């Protein structure tokens, strides 16, 4: 009798484990919760024109001096490898204060003008946040020395840094920071309509839930895609 009772208990335990596993699979198969306005994203008001043509525009407003932008780099690179083909993504250096935020924005556009845009993107973040080279954020002379060690002639960098074309792009960054009403960095704008960011996906322990953040980003892209389809 005792052996039979033990067998029954074992069977019940086994069936309970199977039921729990099935319930877990069902829950994991559920689609992620729809993003909530005000919690997961905000509306850009008024909506801004895009430069992406038929593609959905994604913009990351960032600043090299921002530790949160530095932390986002690796997860963002992983997302960019799988981003939808109909999304055109670009970085825009935010400028809240021209004196402190402008120099690195100018450096970003100067490197682009020299044809090496993106080549030193990760290295700049690491120099500031890993190696402690804080002076590069606002001092063009430190920038020029650092880039010279990377193979860029000082005079070429200086000429690009102070060029008319770069002046115009820096001014455009200032205007966009205001018109998009960028709340801080990093911030992701989707198709000129929606704004989200890692700060909107912070868990109870204070850490960023990057899985949730990219879920929201993907959902906002899907929403923009439907809206574009409805306009045809």
Low-confidence stretches: none
The shape, in one word, is globular
Provide the residue-averaged pLDDT: 91
DSSP helix count?
Answer: 8
- The tally of strands reads 5
Major sheet attributes: 5 strands, mixed
Q: Work out the helicity level.
A: 40-55%
How big a fraction of the residues is strand?
Answer: 5-15%
Order of helices and strands: HEEHEHHHHHEEH
Structural class: alpha+beta
Radius of gyration: 24 Å
Termini separation: 74 Å
Reconstruct the topology from this structure.
Layout: H1 2-29, E1 42-43, E2 56-62, H2 67-82, E3 87-93, H3 98-113, H4 121-129, H5 140-148, H6 154-161, H7 164-179, E4 187-190, E5 194-196, H8 210-230
Parallel strand pairs: 2-3
Antiparallel strand pairs: 1-5, 2-4, 4-5
Helix pairs in contact: 3-6, 3-7, 5-6
């Amino acid at each position: 009798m005792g052996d039979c009772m033990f067998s029954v208990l074992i069977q019940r335990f086994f069936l309970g484990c199977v039921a729990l596993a099935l319930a877990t699979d069902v829950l994991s198969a559920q689609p992620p919760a729809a993003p909530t306005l005000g919690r997961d994203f905000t509306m850009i008001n008024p909506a801004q024109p895009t430069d992406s043509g038929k593609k959905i525009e994604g913009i990351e407003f960032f600043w090299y001096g921002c530790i949160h932008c530095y932390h986002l780099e690796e997860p963002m690179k992983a997302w960019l490898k799988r981003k939808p083909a109909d999304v055109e993504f670009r970085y825009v250096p935010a400028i809240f204060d021209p004196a402190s935020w402008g120099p690195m924005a100018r450096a970003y556009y100067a490197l682009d003008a020299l044809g090496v845009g993106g080549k030193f993107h990760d290295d700049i973040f690491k120099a500031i946040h890993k190696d402690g080279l804080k002076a590069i954020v606002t001092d063009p002379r430190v920038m020029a020395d650092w880039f010279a060690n990377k193979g860029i002639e000082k005079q070429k960098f200086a000429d690009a840094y102070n060029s008319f074309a770069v002046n115009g792009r820096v001014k455009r960054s200032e205007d966009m920071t205001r018109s998009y009403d960028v709340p801080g960095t990093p911030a992701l704008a989707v198709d000129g309509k929606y704004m989200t960011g890692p700060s909107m996906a912070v868990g109870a322990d204070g850490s960023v839930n990057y899985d949730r953040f990219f879920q929201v980003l993907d959902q906002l892209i899907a929403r923009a895609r439907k809206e574009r389809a409805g306009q045809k």
